[in-house]
Structure formats: C-alpha cells, structure tokens
Amino acid sequence: MNQLRWMLYKDLLIEWRGRARVAALSTFAVTLLLLFSFAVGPDTDALRTHAPAYLWLSVLTASTLLLTHGFKLEVESGAMEGLLLLPVSPRAIFYGKAIANMVLLLAVGVVALLVTLVLFDVTPRENPIWLLLILVLGTAGVSAPGTLYAGLTARLHAAQMVLPVLLFPLVVPCMVAAVRATSLVLGGDAMGQLDSWLWVLGCFDAIYWSLCGVLFGKVIG
Amino acid sequence: MPAAAIEARDVGRRYGRRWALARLDLIVPEGSFFLLVGANGSGKTTFLRLAASAEQRNRGELAVFGQDPARRAENLRAHVALLSHKAGLYEDLSARENLELLAGLASMEPRIAEWLAAVQLEDRPDPVRCFSAGMRKRLAFARLIAQRPRLALIDEPYGQLDPVGFDLVDGLMHTLRDQGATVVIASHLVERASRQADTALVLHQGTPRWQGPARKVPAAWAAVHRVPA
Amino acid sequence: MDGMVVGGWEYVWAAYGLSWMALVGYTASLWLRGKDT
Amino acid sequence: MRKDWALVATGFVLLAIGHGLGLFFVPPEAMMGETGRIFYVHVPTAWNCLVMFLIAFVCAVMVLWSGHPKWDARTTGYVEVGTLYNVMLLFQGSIWARPTWGVYWTWDPRLTTAAVMAVTFAGVMVLRKLIEDPERRATAHAVATVVAFVNVPVVYMSVKWWRTLHQDMSSPSTVDSVMHWPLRTAAIGMLLLGVGFAMVRAELERRRIAIEDEAPELPPVPNPLEV
C-alpha cells in the first residue's frame, strides 16, 4: 500500500511537471470532436443524437497516446528495471500507473465533455452529476487493460500501432456501456435503464482491475 | 551458510545465437572488493545483470548469498543493488525527489541531505533533465548508497565522471565496503580499478581468462590481449 | 407450408463451400509449412 | 505429428458424413426450409470455435503457470485454429443472415461477439509476430490470450443488452431429433479436426522455436594464462 502511494505520487508529479502533455492531449480530443462534426455535416439533430459516441471515441483515441507515453518514460530511462530490482511489487507499479492514467484520462474526458455539451448544443435531461460518474467508470475501464497492454508493448518499436489493435476490441463492452449511459443522461432516461448500464461499467471495471493487476507481474517480471 | 556473496558454476547466458557469457566459474567471498575487467562485449555487464536478477542465465548454477537470483525473490533483491548504464532516474524529478521516492518505496528513513552531500549534489534543485552525464552518475551513486546493499554491483563506476569524480567514487566504494558490503565493479580503467579491488577476473569474449589478485590485473590484461585464445 | 423460406440452396452451397475451402486451405498451408522444416 | 494428421483425417471424414447427412438425408427445416441446412456447418463451427479458444485459454494459463515452452506452442496452435473457425463463423453467419433477415449483417449479439472476438484474437496473433525474444513472446502472448478469452462473455453480455434483436437460436435440445445426428457428427468431426490442426501447428511452432532459439556451441575452453 505504501509503495502504491509512492508510485501514484511519482506518476502524478511527473505528469504535473509535464502538464503541457495533458493539455496537448485534451486539445487532440477536442480536435477529434470537431472532426467528427465536420465528417457528419451540419445536421444538428444527428450531431446531438450521436454526441455521446463522439465523446467516447475521442477519449478512447486520446487514451492510446497517453498510455504508450507513460511506459516509454519508464522503459527508456531504465527506471522500470530499477523499480523491480528495488524491489517494488509489480502490483504497486501497475495500480499506481493505472490510477494515474485514469486521472489523466478523466481530465481529458472532462474537457471533452464540456466541449461536447457546448459544441453539439446538448443539455442533459437527467442530473449531470451522473455524467461525472460515467466518466470515472468509463475511463477506469479503459485505463486498466490499457495500462496492462501498454506495459506489454512498451519494448516494441511498433508500440503505438499494436496497442490500439489489442486494446480497442477489448474495451468494446466498456464503450457500449459508457456511450449508452451518457446518451441516457443527455437524452432522458424514461425507462430507467441508466442503472443497468452503470452496473455493466462497474462489472467491467471490477473484472479488469483485478485481472490485469494479477497479469501485470508476469508481463514485466 | 557459505561465506560467498556470489557463487557461479559453469554459468552461461546467450542472446539469440551468441554466448555473451560462458563457462564462468567464480566465487566472490562476502565482504570482498571484486573487479571484472574485459573489453567491450566481454560479458562484464551480463554477469552483473545475472547476479542482480535483472536477467536469467541459460545454463549453470548461480547463487547470491546462497539463493538463486533467477527466482527474483524480494528478500534477495532488497539486499542487492545494481548500478547500470541506464541511470534509472526520473528526468522530470529533481535529485532530492528521486531520492525521496527511493526512500519511500523501500520504506527507508529518508536522509536525503546526507546522501546528496556524499555525492556533492546538495545545491541542485533543478530536475534531472538539466543534469550533465557525470552528475547523473553521481546521483545514481547516491541511490546506491541509500539502498545500503549487502552486495553492490557497479557497472563502470568511473564512466562519464571527471577526475574529481573518480576520487569521490573511490571513496564511496570503500565506504560501502567498510560498512560490510561486498563490492563488485566492472571497469575499463584497468590501472585505477586494480588499485582499489582485492581480487579480479579478466573476461575475454565472454569467457573467463584469468583470475587472481587485483594488483596483477594490468599484467594479465596485457597478456590476454597479446596472446589470442 | 406457411412462412417457410422457399429455395435458398445457393446460400447453403455458399456456406458449405466457403467452409470447406477454408478447412482444406488451412490443411494445405499446414502441410506446406511442415514440408519446409 | 503422424497421430495429429490422423486426427485431421478422421475429422474430415466425420465432418463429411455429418454434412452429407445434413445436406441430403434430412428433410428441410420447418421454418427455414433448405437454408436451414446451413445449421449443420454453422452450429458445429460456433461450438468448436469457442472450444478452441477455451483450450487456448487453458494452455495460456499453463504458460504463465509453468513457463514450459510446449504450452506456448500449443497456445499458438489453438489460437490460430480458433481464429480460423472464427472467420469461417463470420462468413457463414452473414450468408445465413441474408435469406433469414434480408441483410448480410445484423447487430445480433452472437454475430457481433464473433466479430469482436475475431478482431481480438487477430490482435493476439499480431502481437506474437512482433516480439522476438522467445520467453517474452511466450508470456506476452499468453497474457493477451487470457485477457481476450475473458473478454468473450463480457462482450456477449454487453452486446446482448445493447441490442436484443431476435429470439434465441436453436441448439440440439430444442431442435428436431432428426437433426441430432448430422449435427453431432459434424461437431465431433470439427472438434477432432480442430485438435488435429492445433497439434500439427503446435509441433510446427515448436520446431520453429527450436531452430530459431537453438543453443549455439559453447566457446572453446581458453588456454590457461601465466602472469
């Protein structure tokens, strides 16, 4: 636990020092949102309906850059090896990185969400506080398997290409649930389905946060 | 418990189709100051990494304080420190923060000022990114000292340092040893290193060629390179 | 027979044909790969 | 290797018998008519695709557990055959969808899961190609296989909730007893075929690794050196 706290502190401190990176990433996500609207055309109704999909797709795309970057720092400097030999438990490394990735992705997600609301002129019909919960659960769902796969591909030259190939099919359930839940909050939840989608997200997170933590030790050993 | 810090029998490690280290039989007694010399690619780094459990051997038996490093046991890793070519420092953090992190992760009492003073880096609050190569090396030494290892494995202790740094590092290594640690270094600076160590091993193209008292290393080194295997 | 789909043999042949082609093709590829080594 | 090829041959024979029965001896299905015959190739493929991935998962767990290279070779075999069945499944599924629903693709949970599964395991195979160090490749491949397999039910459940388009498809307990024999024969045929394929593929992989990772001769013992 102590090690986990230090790892998390370290990752967040480094990202805080390099906060321009997170800013760049948020800009990237916002650019994607703009591109989606250009691609669909000036049909405001269609844009409004599909806003949740654009939001999550841009967050997911931005996540791959974030994930590969985090491990590149560790592997290139030899810091990861130093940590393992210290010894720091692989679980502490994993959960520290995964939580840090989630926090950063959440920051990107919040920016993207605000831009989505303005850009596509959407007003949430349900309590907007749900949006925050969905963002937390959704980014958690991307960051756990994302951190595992980023660790798996960190030493490869083609890391940035392989990571999405492995990660995107995996997070299909997470994306489905997050997009559905978001559109229910934005468009109104007449049938009371929001709970079940949040539940799906929660289960997804629980499965991958535990499974990936166990497997990560094998990956970097 | 045998009084050997490292015991190797017929140890070999290969990368693909090439043996980086082979036929190594070696005993490094606990508390000794051991020197590995050899040209580039002679297997020095490979041996240090095997002993540090950073890599796995492909053949033979290896024991560090009686334990097999291949098992990557935490209680062994906690006693062994490796200073490798890659400094393993976080570029965005300052020297102080890097050491704080180390102390926090290893649950040690953070005596940062003392560690920084030992490598003469007290007055550098800027991130490691701005450090010169020699300063990084010093900081890496501070990390090594902070770990208080029973076995210190040091790859090129003099690399990237200035003459002042040479003396500093010699002092640090002797301090480590006076504290009871076993020190194993690998170096190209044959003359200098052989004055520090007790015993030595000369490696040539992955195989051991000569083993004996460190003061005879310069002669052995010359002999190895005059007489091809 | 009410509601029963009439005909459709072409779909049946397509499904079986493609499947057998895939299986035989894979067998051949394994065979060739085995010959090389 | 010879035994494995025998399995393949037996599998082909059983599969041919099953398909022959299904194509020529069984009466047309009550609802689907002649197109219902696609069942006898489609359903065994679906079952065995999952079986192959299940075995791959077990082998991958063994790689992580024991680290023995033979499990790595087997994982490779079963992942490859599973992916082959998976791709066949997709083609059959869309051929089946055309006369049934009038389109080649529907967002039916099974079809969608099969598509996601194919992409996931294709990613696993790509990953394997990209890593050169044998040990690192074995663990990375095994970890990716484990995660990909765990993902299958998760995808299925979420897609099912996302869009429930139609009724449950039939399985042998709900179909006419006249359909049992062709279905079972074809299923067992495909199982033997799959296991045979995977074993041959594993053997090939084992040989390939052995050649690629063959230990070179040790360097000669140097002459003693007098100083």
Task: Please describe what this structure looks like.
The complex is a heterotetramer of chains A (221), B (229), C (37) and D (227). Chain A has helices at residues 2-17, 19-40, 44-77, 79-85, 90-119, 129-153, 159-170, 172-187, 194-220. With 221 residues, chain A is mainly α. Chain A has one domain (2-220). Chain A is globular, with a radius of gyration of 18 Å. Chain B is 34% helix and 28% strand. Chain B contains eight helices and nine strands. Chain B has helices at 44-51, 74-77, 95-105, 112-118, 133-146, 163-178, 190-196, 217-226; strands at residues 4-15, 18-29, 33-37, 59-64, 80-83, 151-155, 182-187, 199-204, 207-213. The N and C termini of chain B lie far apart (37 Å). Chain C has 37 residues and is mainly alpha-helical. Chain C has one domain (11-37). Chain C has one helix at 9-36. The model of chain C has no long low-confidence stretch (mean pLDDT 84). Chain D is an all-alpha fold. Chain D has a single domain (2-27, 34-167, 175-208), classed as Four Helix Bundle (Hemerythrin (Met), subunit A). Chain D has helices at 2-25, 39-66, 69-101, 109-130, 134-162, 180-212. The longest helix of chain D has 33 residues, at 69-101. The relative contact order of chain D is 0.20. Chains in contact: A-B, A-D, B-D, C-D. Chain A binds chain B through residues 2-3, 5-7, 9-10, 13-14, 17-18, 73, 77-79, 81-89, 92, 221, and chain B through 52-54, 72, 74, 77-78, 80-82, 84-93, 97, 101-102, 104-107, 127, 143, 147.
Question: How would you describe this structure in keywords?
Answer:
heterotetramer; B: 229 residues; alpha/beta; Rossmann fold; six-stranded mixed β-sheet; three-stranded antiparallel β-sheet; 34% helix; 28% strand; globular; C: 37 residues; 76% helix; 0% strand; rod-shaped
What structural class should be given to the helix and strand makeup of chain C? mainly alpha
At the first level of CATH, the class of the domain at 1-74 and 186-229 in chain B is Alpha Beta
The multimeric state of the shown protein is heterotetramer
Number of helices of chain B: 8
N-to-C SSE series of chain C?
H
The radius of gyration of chain B is 17 Å
Q: Spatial order of the strands in the main sheet of chain B? A: 5-6-7-3-8-9
Number of domains of chain C: 1
CATH superfamily of the domain at 1-74 and 186-229 in chain B: P-loop containing nucleotide triphosphate hydrolases
Query: Whole-Å distance between the termini of chain B?
Result: 37 Å
Please state the average pLDDT score of chain B.
90
The largest pleated sheet of chain C is described as: none
Which pair has the most extensive contact?
C-D, 23 and 38 residues
- Which regions of chain B have little confidence, pLDDT < 50, spanning 5+ residues? none
Give the beta-strand count of chain C.
0
CATH architecture of the domain at 1-74 and 186-229 in chain B: 3-Layer(aba) Sandwich
Beta-strand share of residues of chain B? 25-35%
Shape of chain B: globular
How many beta-strand runs of chain B?
9
Helix content of chain C: over 70%
Arithmetic mean pLDDT of chain C: 84
